[in-house]
Amino acid sequence: MPKIVLEHVTKRWGNFYGAKDLNIVLEDREFVTLLGPSGCGKTTTLRMIAGLETPTEGKITIGDTVVFDSETGINLSPAKRDVGFLFQNYALWPHMTVYKNITFGLENVRVPGEDGKMRRLTKAETEERVNEVCDMLKIQQFRDRYPSELSGGQQQRVAIARTLATHPKVLFMDEPLSNLDAKLRAEMRTELKRMHRDMNSTFVYVTHDQLEAMTLATNICLMNNGLVQQFDPPLTVYNKPANLFVADFIGNPTMNFIPGVIEEVKGSEATVSFFGIKAKFKGDQEIPEGIKDIIVGVRPEFLPIHEKGKLKGLAYGTLPAGMETTVKINFNDEILSSVVFGSIDYAIDSEIRFDIVGDGILLYDYASKNVLGRGTLEILEIGEYHRGSEEPFKIELVAPGTNPNEGVGEPGKGKKKKGLKKAKKEKVEEPAPVAEKAPVEEEEAPAEEVEEPSEEPKEE
Ligand SMILES: Nc1ncnc2c1ncn2[C@@H]1O[C@H](COP(=O)(O)OP(=O)(O)OP(=O)(O)O)[C@@H](O)[C@H]1O
Ligand SMILES: [Mg+2]
Fold first, then answer.
1. 42: Cβ below 6 Å to ligand 1?
2. Does residue 219 have a pLDDT over 50?
3. Which of 2, 82, 278, 350 has the most beta carbons within 10 angstroms of its beta carbon?
4. Counting beta carbons within 10 angstroms of the beta carbon of residue 173, is it exposed (0 to 12), middle (13 to 18) or buried (19 or more)?
């Protein structure tokens, strides 16, 4: 039923873009995750679709209904958009038990009756729905408790239960699992996925956790600086990241970025050199003439370590994580990451032989940061290599002039950090955006009201 279309949707505060020129289509019954670093515009985008934030420009359609259009002045209230919300800050009714919190929302639900007319849920149906969500969220034992008698994670589960029980056609979720512990979060992901299949709803889910986005979504909408970077199924985003930003953001351990140059191009093939290696790249798309500086993107799984490997390096460090081990290889003073299945330890500075294999090698144009192809790399020559400087090189992930907020201080945040210019190996986990949430959360309060029956059911 409801397909959601965004056309040229922009949200601007002064000259700061929260989201810029979004053109996305969320197909009916999709599970779309909005993913990206803190402050990239995920919540803003979700709130605009839901009707909690008014876009500066653009048009939003849900199903057959235009819910917002800056040209004609249409702007439907959230209540009229027929959607469910689940925000990180959930406002449970403090004076109601868990059971009452869940059933309260169900009083407004209408289902088609035998005579074709819409009717309220019967007692048995209400009970069935409460049981379904209480089982799923493991809160049966708390049914008679008040919110103040529950932990934060338990309260969050009640909020999820309350929203899911109404079986909304479109469900918006903004980091709904953030208060749960790791184990429960993993379980909830599975349950959400099953629930999505059973409910026939479109789910739009905000997260800054790439694993969550990868595992849940039918499509990922990856954002940065208010711009959509890529909108594709998770495996496409992983296998063929559209630009360096996406390539760096997705995957753990991160992709190796190796700076090099193109020596010759022929169609989708190129002779490239990097770190003293000359190699032939065979890609899957035409490579434009005239590109010189490139980045070769190699996922750690495509640097297998084995005795007969053609390339020789030294063990810089190993990070065993149980199921796999990340091995940092010092190759001519450049550090590369490889990942090995199982637990392996190499003595520091012992010799390691490895290869570059696989058909998932990526080539990026360093000027535009865009992908030039995905394919195989055949090593032709291994020569001498000495890095010019002491400093490890820095790779800019975003092309100059493409960040709409460059030089614009973030409102309310002081000076923008130089987050994009980072030393090559310094992959830092995005911190949970707790502090920054505060002002937004306050505004989100009305969202919860919307989810509650907007008119008290009067007829008994
Ligand atoms: N009401 C507002 N006025 C001015 N700027 C705002 C407002 N709301 C959000 N912003 C800014 O817009 C940008 C996008 O915010 P948004 O809340 O969409 O980020 P996000 O991607 O959800 O981040 P997080 O992962 O931290 O929740 C941020 O830089 C934020 O500071
Ligand atoms: Mg947010």
1. yes
2. yes
3. 2
4. buried
| pLDDT (tens digit per residue) in 281-309 | 999 999 999 999 999 999 999 999 999 99
Q: Is the dihedral of CA 47, 51, 55, 60 positive or negative?
A: positive
Contacts with 434 (C-beta within 8 Å, 6 or more apart), sequence order: none
The protein residue whose alpha carbon is closest to atom 20 in ligand 1 is 39
pLDDT greater than 50 at residue 264: yes
Spell out the alpha helix ranges (H) of 137-284.
Answer: 152-165, 182-199, 210-216, 234-239, 244-249
Nearest CA to 207 among 48, 42, 448? 42
pTM listed for this prediction: 0.82
- Select from 42, 46, 56, 228 the residue to mutate for testing ligand 1; criterion: most ligand atoms less than 8 Å from CB: 42
* CB of 43 shorter than 6 A to ligand 1: yes
- Domains belonging to the chain, first-starting first, are 4-242+439-451 (3.40.50.300), 255-396 (2.40.50.140)
Residue 348 in contact with residue 317, Cβ under 8 Å?
A: yes
Check pLDDT > 70 for residue 316.
Answer: yes
Residue nearest to atom 24 of ligand 1 (CA): 38
Say if ligand 1 is within 6 A of residue 38 CB. yes
Over pLDDT 90: what percentage of the chain? 60
Residue nearest to ligand 1 atom 28, measured at CA? 39
Q: Which ligand 1 atom is the nearest neighbour of the CA of 46?
A: 18
User: Phi/psi class of residue 113: alpha, beta or left (left: φ > 0; alpha: ψ in -120 to 50)?
Assistant: beta
